[in-house]
Known about the structure:
Elements: E1 4-9, H1 17-26, E2 32-37, H2 45-55, E3 64-68, E4 79-84, E5 87-92, H3 98-104, E6 108-112, H4 115-119, H5 127-140, H6 145-148, E7 149-151, E8 164-166, E9 169-177, E10 183-188, E11 198-203, E12 206-212, E13 224-228, E14 233-238, H7 243-246, E15 254-259
Amino acid sequence: MPPLVTLLSDFGSGSPYPAAMRAVLAAYGEMRCIDISHDVPPHDVRAGAYLLSTIVPFTPAGTVHVAVVDPGVGTSRRALIVVAGGQYFVGPDNGVLMPAARRAGAPRAYVITDEALLRGVRSSTFHGRDLFAPAAGRLAQGTPPGVLGAPAPEIVDLDLGTGRVVRGALVGEILYVDAFGNLITNIPASLLPPAGTRVMLRAGRRLMVARVSRTYGEAARGRLVVVPGSDGLVEIAVREGRASVALHASAGAPVRLGPAR
């Protein structure tokens, strides 16, 4: 079966840049390409890292992931290959690769030093096309990462954190706001109380009562619910509405779920 390559960026789904990367990858032989998303909020490394991390439990060993959320492109920031759990992660040394790599296994990082790859960089503003895609193509062909780079014991890390119980309440933060306006937190869904429980929810500066539910459709239209998300994390939603609007909340805002009085 042809190797699997995934692409993630903040280029925008209407831009030509993802297609340019695909065109470069096509020169390296037959492979299957999956677009995770090209609508990561611009320059939002944390959102890109979260989205990439959601995919790795479902991709097999040998998969090559290319993540380009790269505000530092063209500067002294390094270009990395990270190996974890038999999967490969290619992108900038700004932390975007690390949550996914840790989820896949024990990460080992390499700084790209291959002269042929570095000579191929034509633009100081598009390393996705000129460096990361060719590196991914070489990995997909079976080239060992140690041939393309040198070990990098110290790299930029990024920890999305894990919500926890503090004095009887669940405490964490919003990682991502999805297309439905649902607020995806870093609180493990396993910590939620049983479905039907009323909770006092604080997200950002808003304080509201919500109900724990198994799924969105169990709530009345327009009601605020807390559900176990598909990635095993707590989600805050409004049925057929937008929790981000109802709570005036965005990524990075603190979240607290406690007993309703």
